[in-house]
Amino acid sequence: MYTIAQEAEINRILSSSAPQTILQVQRSSTKQTLKQTYRIKALLVHPDKCDHPRAEEAFVRLRTAFETISAGNGPWRSGDEEKTSGMGTQRERERQDSFE
Amino acid sequence: MPTAMPAPTPTAERGDERGREPMTVSPEPSIRSRSPSLPPGSHYIGIDLGTTLLRLCAYHPDLQTVRFVPNERDKRKTPCFVAFPDDIELVESGRKACDPVVGEEAQRWLFKYPKATVFSWAQLVGLKFDDERVAFYQRYAPYRLVKDKYARVCVEIEHDGRQKHYRPEDLTAILLTYARQNAEQALRHPITGSVITVPAGYTLLQRDATKEAARQAGFQHARLISNAAAAAIAFGFDRPAHPTSVTEYVLSFNLGAAHIDCAVVGIDEEVFEVLASAGDVGFGAADVDVRLLMHFVQDLSKQSNRKLTSLDLLSLRFGAEKIKKALSTADSISHTIQLSSGAYAMTMTRELLETLCADFFDRCLVPIQQVLVEAKMDITKISKVVLSGGGSHFPKLRDRISSLFPGNHIYDFALIDKHKAVGYGAGIESALLSGMRSPNITNYLLIDSLSFSLGILDTTTNTIKTLLKRNTALPAQTTVTLRPIPPTTPPTSTPPAPIAVIKLYEGDTTDPKTCHLLATLSTPIPTQDKHITLSIDVDVDRTVLVTLVSDETEKNVRVTDYPMPVFDVSEDWERGVGVTVVGAGERKGQAGGEVEGMEIQD
């Protein structure tokens, strides 16, 4: 059994590619927020909590994204992307708004 | 009474159908559709499967929490004994001669039928006969250990005037059948799933053998968790309210009769993550008994020329266990052991015990250092040390461990008995897998990790290239590109074979001799410069699925290392070519996503 929310989250994770899109965190996020977001999502999509056939795949993606972000310190890529301090990119802001 | 059950077929009679032939190659897509969890509404039970004791813990719907399940003698713990007594008393009570008896019922036959009463076999599960631990075990066991056709260890039981061979997992299956029937009787509903605790240092082979035992015992799904992880879950259940959103790191140390388990667990509210685990299988508190036993034998030889029979050794061994337990609280103890040549009275002090076992405590601390290094964890970050298992009662060991950590960090369980911490943890995990939701049990999630690295043999260097490192969180997936290596020998009359042979190993070194071969797989290759894609996929139950893609062929192999390593190669595999790893392993999750600039603040 899995809920609609779980299925939606799995589909969202599987259709995202960038780590911060998978985790829905912004560049201003603290390690606290990152961990908390990861924890909430892990509880949704871990195969022990959700028997959706693609739960395992989604969890591995989530986990990899979390590890990638946790391992890095500071910006990995600076350049063409619109940069704002503290609020994330324009695109991320919009995405964030649509979730709220 | 759940004691009567059919004996499992001994190995010898089962051999033919389990020969080398059955290749675990399933072509159908169902190999991918894995549902480790049972349908909703299935009942799980937590089993603390120790070397000497078994405890059952299950969710109690009325109390809305987990409780230990009593056995038919109304005890919360069952000694791990299986006996095959050929006794008139049993025949008269209507039991068939070949039916095994389990638990306390079996323990009472120990001295009457020492060659047909097996105990402490958990450490033998999945071992090769020529393992040094088998030879050590044999020195103090009244029954014989023999080799089966796969060179694995078997217990020989004298039974009905004939010798029968039981694999250690067959004995575990008998015990688990008893446990299941016991629980079904007490809980009044069928039980199809189990959460079984095993030592953290169990290899995939030992885990597969335990899962096979659970399957034989009628459990459709068995989740194996380490003793240390189970104790950590019990800690999470027991601990006082913790400031939320602060990750707490605990070191869980479990000293059982024949294993040491150690794990660093990060607890982030309801998510428990095993960051690193290590263990010593076949070494544990029972080694203290053996040291005491050797001391007694030496003492007796000084006293007089007493002859010791094998039964005397058995009495001394169980006497030593009693003395060891008593010395955890008392400073000295006087005890008398009845031997065939008369009573043996002795006084033992805790000081002498600690002298006899000085190096024992040193060895206990090795896994602690190991997990701290592997988890990249500073000692000051560990907030609590959770001790569990019978062996953790040694005052000396407590002192040694607390001296490692600054300040007093040893956690004393408040709500639950620390003997039962592992069982509690298994019970809570079983309640969660059953899908029980109760206000008393938080919806925990245990993220376990690999105990040993998985890698393949790179034939150019003859070393093992690690693909999934130990302590990788489960489930885990990885993909790697391989290139076939043509043989270096000059071309002979035989054309090079159009297949590549891939050997999958489990172990922590790069030397194939010290690692354990899990599977030998093959895949056809069109030409030798074509690359092969290999994916390894380990699910939450540690089932390993290997996918080989070369050119247009795709092949899925489920690696189950039981009862033999997988040999999936075709007839002419000896002419097959080796492979080399090109490019580093890539985690499947990274689907080429770009990482945008991001800062993470502490």
**Largest interface, per-chain counts?**
A-B, 51 and 41 residues
- H/I helix tally of chain B: 13
Discrete helix count of chain A: 5
- Characterize the quaternary organization of these chains: heterodimer
Shape of chain B: globular
Roughly how much helix do the residues of chain A carry, as a percent range? 55-70%
Poorly predicted residue ranges of chain B: 1-35, 589-602
Distance between the termini of chain B: 59 Å
Secondary structure class of chain B reads alpha+beta
Largest sheet of chain B: 6 strands, mixed
Structure keywords:
heterodimer; A: 100 residues; mainly alpha; 5 helices; 0% strand; elongated; disordered C terminus; B: 602 residues; alpha+beta; Nucleotidyltransferase, domain 5; Actin, Chain A, domain 4; Substrate Binding Domain Of DNAk, Chain A, domain 1; 3 domains; 6-stranded mixed β-sheet; 13 helices; 30 strands; 25% helix; globular; disordered N terminus
Account of the protein in words:
- The complex is a heterodimer of chains A (100) and B (602).
- Chain A is built from five helices and no strands.
- Chain A is mainly α.
- Chain B has 602 residues and is α+β, with helices and mostly antiparallel strands.
- Chain B has three domains: 30-283 and 362-447, Nucleotidyltransferase, domain 5 (2-Layer Sandwich); 286-359, Actin, Chain A, domain 4; 454-601, Substrate Binding Domain Of DNAk, Chain A, domain 1, CATH 2.60.34.
- In chain B, the strands form seven sheets. In chain B, strands 1, 2, 3, 4, 11 and 12 form a six-stranded mixed β-sheet that branches.
- In chain B, helix 8 packs across helix 9 (310-326).
- The chains are: A mainly alpha (100), B alpha+beta (602).
- At the A-B interface, helix 2, helix 3 and helix 4 of A face strand 20 of B.
- Chain B: InterPro entries: ATPase_NBD, HSP70_peptide-bd_sf, Hsp_70_fam.
- Chain B: Residues 1-39 are annotated as: Disordered.
- Chain B: Belongs to the heat shock protein 70 family.
- Chain B: This is Hsp70-like protein.
